[in-house]
Write a structure and sequence with these properties.
Length: about 230
């Protein structure tokens, strides 16, 4: 005979349930949402730069948008896919996310260089070395993927835990990267101007929150697909 605790215990949510079709739809949705996030982030950064007194050439704006969208698409899709194909196993999702972040960073920077050459925009020299920023991003998004997979595994239906996780990661790593970037720039004798400090801080701190929310929306769509339409009134 089943006990009450047996019948009332929730079944862990499996994000890969429903077969590859649902996983593909989820990834497709995350892709579109990630592109939208890239546009939103660049719009926020653009307004922040103008408010801090920066003059932004149209060519540089085009380059920044290309890089921002490329980064947003690759990293959010990578983390979202990791939480899907790993059946929300946190360790596996974290490992896959850790591998995705440096690759996404490399592709985003390559796209920035390509677009800069096409529109003849002046390239912005990197302050931190590729090895340093890649390591930090791998740790950041590996931890983000692990925490998000735990939320998916628990079946968290509210957006608040996802946003909280994104905020925690953004404040921790974003602040560290922003401060490290500033100190290295000062040590090199090229202290960044206010617009550069503002844009770096916004991008590093707020983007993980947006990416976490995108992952939440993706798993919400997956739940809706698995549940199917509700009963119709006869």
């Amino acid at each position: 005979m089943q006990t009450m605790s047996d019948t009332s215990s929730p079944t862990p949510f499996d994000p890969s349930a429903g077969g590859g079709r649902h996983v593909a739809r989820r990834v497709a949705f995350i892709s579109l949402a990630a592109i939208a996030l890239g546009f939103v982030m660049q719009a926020v950064i653009f307004v922040a730069k103008l408010a801090s007194g920066a003059a932004i050439p149209a060519a540089q704006l085009f380059v920044d948008i290309a890089q921002g969208i490329t980064w947003s698409l690759l990293v959010c899709v990578g983390v979202g896919t990791a939480t899907s194909i790993s059946k929300a196993r946190p360790a596996m999702a974290g490992l896959l996310s850790m591998l995705v972040a440096p690759a996404a960073l490399a592709v985003a920077r390559a796209s920035q260089k390509i677009m800069a050459s096409l529109v003849e925009a002046a390239g912005q020299p990197a302050v931190l070395s590729v090895a340093t920023i890649s390591t930090l991003k791998a740790l950041e998004y590996g931890l983000l993927g692990w925490l998000l997979a735990r939320l998916v595994q628990r079946g968290s239906a509210s957006a608040l835990p996802y946003i909280s996780v994104g905020a925690l990661i953004g404040l921790t790593f974003g602040t560290a990267i922003s401060v490290l970037t500033y100190r290295v720039a000062v040590a090199k004798g090229t202290p960044p101007q206010l617009p550069a400090v503002v844009s770096t801080s916004i991008n590093e701190i707020i983007f993980p929150v947006g990416c976490a929310f995108v992952i939440y929306l993706g798993q919400l769509v997956t739940r809706s697909l698995i549940a199917g339409p509700g009963p119709q009134a006869g």
